[in-house]
């Protein structure tokens, strides 16, 4: 079931990603106030992340019923990137690159903080392997620390992280 759900989400993301029309793919559940994207937009620390998702039409895929876990980089984490990096990514010619970057932060499953054990690994939508580390009371995903956890709704959970997850070379 997870494999089929993943393929559906990737397909919806890809269609939205390469569409120039804001009304291109509007699933029947798009107005559903339970999508994990809604949880993202309700967090003041994630306004920039939400804007980027909208700029490349990836927000639509995250309006579905889930379950999703989003390791969302905070506004401060995004501000640490080199000047102009995000602006360069959201241009049409770089949409594949930003799509890959953003999907490194999404897992198709609901993973509350209590479920994240030291040494666990998960496959993100962007085919990035995410590894969990616990150090004292802190939880890290690919070295990004979870600074606010378990922001949840019916579609899944969001964990705010302190840095952007970049693909391993």
Walk me through this protein's architecture.
The chain is of the alpha+beta class. The longest helix is centred in the first third of the chain and has 16 residues, at 2-17. The chain starts with a helix and ends in an 8-residue tail after the last strand. A seven-stranded mixed β-sheet has the order 2-1-7-6-5-4-3. The protein has helices at 2-17, 36-41, 47-55, 75-79, 85-89, 95-103, and strands spanning 68-73, 106-107, 121-123, 129-135, 138-141, 144-153, 156-161.
Summarize the structure.
The chain is of the alpha+beta class and 169 residues long. It has helices at 2-17, 36-41, 47-55, 75-79, 85-89, 95-103; strands at residues 68-73, 106-107, 121-123, 129-135, 138-141, 144-153, 156-161. It has a 7-stranded mixed sheet.
Strand line-up across the major sheet: 2-1-7-6-5-4-3
- Summarize the helix and strand pattern as letters: HHHEHHHEEEEEE
| Poorly predicted tracts of residues | 1-32
Mean pLDDT: 79
Number of helices: 6
Query: How many β-strand runs?
Result: 7
Q: Structural class, judged by helices and strands?
A: alpha+beta
- Strand content is 15-25%
Span between termini: 30 Å
**Quaternary structure type:** single chain
The major pleated sheet works out as: 7 strands, mixed
What global shape is seen? Answer: globular
Radius of gyration: 15 Å
The percentage helix is: 25-40%
């Amino acid at each position: 079931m997870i494999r089929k759900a993943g393929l559906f989400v990737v397909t919806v993301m890809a269609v939205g990603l390469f569409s120039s029309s804001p009304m291109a793919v509007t699933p029947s559940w798009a107005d559903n106030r339970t999508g994990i994207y809604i949880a993202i937009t309700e967090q003041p620390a994630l306004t920039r992340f939400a804007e980027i998702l909208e700029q490349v039409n990836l927000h639509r895929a995250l309006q579905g019923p889930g379950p999703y876990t989003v390791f969302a980089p905070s506004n401060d984490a995004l501000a640490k990137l080199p000047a102009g990096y995000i602006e360069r990514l959201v241009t049409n010619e770089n949409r594949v690159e930003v799509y890959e970057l953003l999907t490194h932060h999404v897992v198709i499953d609901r993973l509350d903080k209590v479920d994240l054990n030291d040494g666990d690994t998960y496959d993100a939508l962007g085919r990035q392997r995410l590894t969990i580390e616990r150090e004292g009371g802190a939880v890290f995903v690919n070295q990004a620390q979870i600074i606010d956890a378990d922001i949840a709704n019916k579609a899944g959970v969001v964990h705010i992280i302190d840095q952007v997850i970049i693909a391993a070379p």
